[in-house]
Specification:
The complex is a heterodimer of chains A (about 290) and B (about 70). Chain A has ten helices and eight strands. Chain A is of the alpha+beta class. Chain B has one domain. In chain B, α1 packs antiparallel against α2. The chains are: A alpha+beta (about 290), B mainly alpha (about 70). Chain B: Pfam families: DUF1657.
Chain lengths: ~290, ~70
């Protein structure tokens, strides 16, 4: 039986497409821009084998498949060995090379990698560094990118630098999407529809009007509405609580000064200092 | 405003703070935050009880201002 050419191409192409779907499994999980030279070549070779095999009827199917399997095996074996051995990994995927160290450009390394000064400046600018003098250390990665460690005084200021205590945060959960309640996300934060309805009622919003609703790790609900003309009140619960703790603390102190009863004076003074401690403990969580 | 009513107002604030801290300690997901809220809640409760007792004394001293 002779199959007409176009039917064969149709079949071959379908098979090639199915193989293509499985192909990402054999590669490292990384963006194509960060593929090493070896991986990029292997990917292109596999793609070409699939493409040619799908329409070149002159080549027997078996040949294409043999080539394909061989390449897939090679990639698999190389990836496996490079998982186990550092030196092999460096050989195949390349290794980061320092191009700036102690704030000084290493011209030798640049020359070795055939990297021009313009390339270096361009890559630094891509990292928002316009002045070489701001850089303490920079590495030329095997993908061609440059990663930069700025000098400490040029790094962004962090709360740690300022010795400011900050409250830990966990990832927020998206509990409403396009007006639909995500029950699973609600359950992961230990909340339910009843809570959501009560919370929306407080803000005076109908659930159908909510485009995105997220709840943070302190149980605070923030929403974006379909109708952007409606003003959503900002959550005020925590700042209010903080203000009311401060006020109470101050009141207690005033009472302790006003009263003439010695016993009551002591009691108010104690209470005031207790509230001050409370303020200190919870302050960072309520900002 | 008499001293008695001022203290009563403060007591009401304390009650609200206590309740808010309690609800936050239940809602917070972070263990450390939970602990901080709980601890503060207990402290506030202690203060609350002391002030409550003082309100009782004030009411006994000035019975004309009893109640809210």
């Amino acid at each position: 039986m002779i199959i007409p050419g176009w039917v064969e191409i149709l079949l071959r192409t379908t098979v090639a497409f199915l193989i293509l779907l499985a192909a990402p499994k054999i590669f490292r999980r990384t963006s194509i821009a960060h593929f090493s030279y070896f991986e990029a070549s292997a990917m292109i070779i596999i793609a070409v084998i699939l493409a040619v095999g799908s329409f070149h009827i002159g080549i027997p199917v078996g040949y294409s498949i043999t080539a394909l399997i061989t390449w897939v095996l090679i990639v698999g074996v190389v990836n496996y060995i490079s998982l186990k051995s550092v030196s092999f990994r460096n050989f195949i995927h390349g290794k980061g090379i320092p191009v700036i160290k102690d704030g000084k450009v290493l011209e030798e390394n640049l020359k070795k990698e055939r990297y021009t000064t313009d390339d270096l400046l361009k890559q630094l600018r891509a990292r928002n560094v316009f002045k070489v003098a701001d850089v303490e250390f920079a590495v030329l990665e095997s993908s061609g990118d440059i990663n930069v460690l700025l000098k400490k005084e040029n790094q962004p200021l962090t709360p740690k630098d300022m010795l400011i205590p900050v409250a830990p945060v966990k990832e927020p959960q998206t509990i409403v999407m396009d007006g639909k309640v995500m029950d699973e996300a609600l359950a992961t934060v230990g909340l339910n529809r009843g809570w959501l309805e009560a919370e929306l009622e407080k803000q005076g919003i109908a659930i159908e009007n909510v485009f995105i609703g997220q709840v943070d790790s302190y149980g605070e609900l923030t929403v974006d509405l379909f109708d952007d003309k409606i003003k959503v009140p900002e959550p005020k619960e925590k700042p209010l609580l903080l203000a009311s703790i401060k006020k109470t603390q101050a009141d207690l102190e005033i009472f302790s000064l006003q009263t003439e009863n010695e016993q009551a004076k002591d009691l108010f003074k104690n209470s005031a200092s207790e509230m001050e401690e409370v303020l200190k403990t919870v302050q960072k969580y309520l900002h | 405003m008499t001293v008695g009513s001022q203290v009563k107002q403060c007591l009401a604030s304390l009650k609200s703070i206590e309740a808010n801290l309690n609800s936050l300690s239940l809602k917070a997901e972070d263990e450390e935050a939970r602990h901080a809220f709980h601890e503060s809640c207990l402290k506030t409760r202690k203060v609350l009880q002391q002030i409550e007792a003082r309100v009782g004394e004030l009411e006994y001293e000035e019975p004309q201002y009893k109640g809210f």
